[in-house]
Amino acid sequence: MPSVADQTSLDKFLNEKCRSGNFSLHEAHYVFNCIIQRQPTPPISSFNKLFAALVKNKHNDDAISLFKRFNSTGLLPDLITFNILLNCLCNVSRARDGLCREGRIIKATCLFKKMKAFGCRPDVVTYGTIINGLCRTRNTSAALKLHEEMVKGNGEIGVFCEPDIVSYNMLIDGLCKDGLLEKAKELFSEMTSRGINPNVVSYTSLIHGLCCWGKWEEAKDLIVEMMDQQVQANVVTFSVIMDEFCKKGNIIIANELLELMVERGVKPNTITYNTLIDGICKNGKIDKANELLELMIQRGVNPNTVTYNTLIDGFCKNGKIEKANELLKLMIQRGVNPNTVTYSPLIDELCKNGKIDKANELLELMSQRGVNLNTVTYNILIDSFCLVGRIDDARELFDAMTNKGCRHDVFSYSIMINGYCKNRKLEEAISLYKEMISVGVMPNVTTYTTMLRGFFQVGMITHAKKMFGDMRLNNVAPNEYTYNTLIGGIETYNCLLHGLCKTGRLEFACKLFHKLAQEGLLPNVFTYNIIINGFCKEGQLKEANDLLSNMEEKGYAPNVITYNTLMHKFLHNDEATKVVELLHVMVERNIMLDASTASIVINLLLKNEEYCECLNWLPSFSTQEST
Fold first, then answer.
1. pLDDT tens track for 408-442
2. pTM score, whole prediction
3. Residue 42's closest CA among 15, 80, 4?
4. Fewer Cβ close by (within 10 Å): the C or N end of the chain?
């Protein structure tokens, strides 16, 4: 353990190990335990360096835990402490569960409001951190409100701060992602009027937003403006923007952007060309994409495997199998090695054209060239053999997979089982079904539905009932096709009800809903949710609430979607008491809350802080644990 017997040795640890991040979590806890007991207490800066190092090394939970211990001793945090902790709470990974992210933002907001009690005035970093957290969790309206309080010096905190480019960029990006383009453009103008020059991040966020929402000409004009203002976009920026144009099918502007790059001295790279080639292929203009391949070679940019794979796939999808084969030969001549992705569309297209033997020969060629064969490629060919009734050839290829080092997956088994069932070879299908379970490949809904259909076709009703029981026992949820196979049923009605409600034909949907029992089909919770949602959208909250009571009376348990649908509408109608009542019911019934529930709670608190008690009903981030 590091020696921190005096302030000098402590400073050495903090300035050397913590700054570099070269310390263990055990060491950090040891040092904290030493210094928190020392008399006199080390300066707050010592604690801040330790907290900051933990956050930098992504030990966020440990930083929060140590801060709680620090706070419990009566030691007072300063502005830097608050900024470190807020950053820790707001920058929670996007990979985390949505409810957890929302919970941390609530904690951060509570901590932010406590700063005043500790005599700490938030600065632009503080505001920027909270704004970033709110934007990352799609609470953009709350972030915008906080920005306005910051620039006007009003609101609960009441501290004026001059915003910087970082806070503007985060807000502009958040607004664009929510489709609030006009407000984003207002902020962009406000930024320049305050003497803050937009940088490449500012322009890229706004341009990307304009592209996402189909404002092509505005996006193009802004790109030109960015370059005229000497804000130098690099090849990555251009590639990202070009990708958005291509995704939306606006190939003309994407191509113009490529030429603008060259004109302004930004050299496109392989990724740039690949992006445009992919966009052109998806637009069905495969010959134009091939011309671009030649152009990139002329300009000294080397195509890679992805370039050729995209074009080969494009030729195959356009039915130009000979062109695809020619390009494959050219690719090999130019020293670019094909991979599994290169061959898969060729095999798929040959199979679709009934040239299964040619496809099989290509599979052998892949093996000879040392290309790793994958399960997907085999599955394509096996499925093709099954479709034309060549079940023995399919089985031969199925068995050959393991010799080539390819493991059968659930799709391999399902394809073969389907082939056997269609050919009424149920004994072979049953044998394969048992084999897949014995080797640890669990059947999915397609496997079970295929077996059920096969049993019904030959009148093996007892086997079908047992198979459906196995399906439920293994927690595989039946889908529409399963239900249609079994009872012709309830899922079909659910789809129909959803369509009627979506198109505003709620009255007819209700009549159909009441006829379910007459048809011998019992509604499920999803059926009720469809009608409740329809009532809410039409503003018929009384009817929606009555239906909730009706479903409970008939023994159907509402789920989180049922409650969220009602609470969202009650909140929209400023009926906060109803929202709180439903939250209370959810907690009493141990219904698992989700990110949508947390978002409703946030909006409830924004409307009226007296409902802070609701946080105690959210076990994953209750106020009792908040910092």
1. 999 999 999 999 999 999 999 999 999 999 999 99
2. 0.54
3. 4
4. N
